[in-house]
Amino acid sequence: MKKILFIISGSISAYKSLDLIRNFVNENFEIEVILTKSGQKFITPLSLSSMVKKKIHTDIFSKDNHLENMKHISLTRNSDLVVVCPASANIIAKLAHGYADDLASTTLAASDKKIYVVPSMNRKMWENPANKKNIKTLKKRGVKFIGPVKGSLACGEVGFGRMEDIKIVKKEINNFFDLKNKLLGKKVLITAGATIEAIDPIRYISNFSSGKQGYEIANCLQDYGAKTTLITGLTNIEPPEVHKIIKVNSAEQMFKETINECKNYNNIDLAFLSAAVSDWKIIKSKKKYKKNENVFKQIKFSKNKDILHCVSNLKKKRPKIVCGFAAETNYLIENARKKLVEKNCDFIFANKISNKFNPFGNDYNKITFIGKNNQEVWPKMTKKKVAKKIIEEVAYYLN
Q1: How far is C-alpha 375 from the chain's CA centre?
Q2: Residue 348 parent element (H or E)
Q3: What pLDDT, on the 0 to 100 scale, is given for residue 287?
Q4: 297 pLDDT band (50/70/90 cuts)?
Q5: If DSSP codes are grouped into helix, strand and coil, which group holds residue 375?
Q6: Fewer CB in 10 Å around end: N or C, the chain?
């Protein structure tokens, strides 16, 4: 059964949440509701409890049952999704800064589930720099915002701050569960970050990959319940919370770990090979090169094994869908499509590297999605949004 925890905060739009909750109750969703003290000024616990056929949670402490004093934990653990609807500027601020002074904010602080926020407030409150900063902070953490939209507000003013139409909110929530149904329990392998190749005991060569796109894909898969293994090279960012993380340095190490995971981790459904892997390795010197030495004449290169090609051509243990990534400075489509064919992978996500835009180390990305029989240019967007779009596309073909 699909389970949603609704948190209703103090906004005049609170009454709209009744219709939204009723829709999900009619579709046999299991609903729990937290109604804040301010929210009770607009709707009553009785109006909600008669609809969901269970107690509405209003206080962090219960006089009846000491076990309920832990409900800020149990409510989020027993849900698939947390929806704050409507969300006031106050509860957005609490969520952004980790305040936990009532049941709603304490539950949000303790949540380990995806959080959707549906804002509703006066246009000046929405435009307030502090509110904008809080929203930016939460989006970086993976909190999804639905709305608001521009329109007539309860105060008589016109502008952004009006709660999104409940049909749109319902559609977004249903999309979450549709994707979760497709990915729950699926086995996924991701490579990310840069590999490094030692020159001597002190120096190495590498590239500008930050690992952000691969990590965002891993984060997104975690939200949808996939069982994800991440093999990561060099990065300077916080690793995602996934089923398993394997840290490597060189391309050779990444190759061995990737092939081992494919062979030992039965029936991998998806592989996203997004790491920026060095094409060459160096025959490493046992001592440090001195600057007066002619290093370039002494350094010798040899080719690294092609991870994407090897994974795509495994006979028995090939993942169901293999996705490669390509970064090109020239002839993006031609080179990416050539890579798709030569490596025998299912999809390529291609980046154009130019003076105008370089995705390496950037929080934004611009992708061209290339399949064997299709091709689509996506607009520039955050790597978080790119990750979701990548997963949506690939999950469609997986099922």
Answers
A1: 23
A2: strand 347-352
A3: 74
A4: low
A5: strand
A6: N
Residue with tokens 């993380």: 245
Q: Given the DSSP bridges, would you call strands 364-365 and 367-371 parallel, antiparallel or unpaired?
A: unpaired
Question: Measured between alpha carbons, how far is 189 from 204 in angstroms, rounded to an integer?
Answer: 27
Averaged pLDDT for residues 108-120: 93
Answer whether 206's CB lies under 8 Å from 216's CB.
Answer: no
Catalytic residue numbers, as ranges: 155
pLDDT per residue as tens digits for the range 146-179: 989 887 777 777 778 889 999 999 999 999 998 8
The two three-digit tokens of residue 102, written as one number: 């009532």
End-to-end Cα, the chain, rounded Å: 20
Tokens of 8: 């209703």
DSSP secondary structure letter of residue 62: -
Q: Which among 234, 208, 217, 232 is positioned nearest to 327, based on CA atoms?
A: 208
Is there a contact between 346 and 369 (Cβ–Cβ < 8 Å)? no
Contacts of 390 (CB under 8 A, 6+ apart): 217, 272, 323, 349, 367, 369
Q: Is the pLDDT of residue 64 over 60?
A: no
**Statement: residue 338 has pLDDT above 90:** yes
Angle value at C-alpha 47, between 42 and 52, nearest 5 degrees: 125
| CB-based burial label for 139 (10 Å; 0-12, 13-18, 19+) | middle
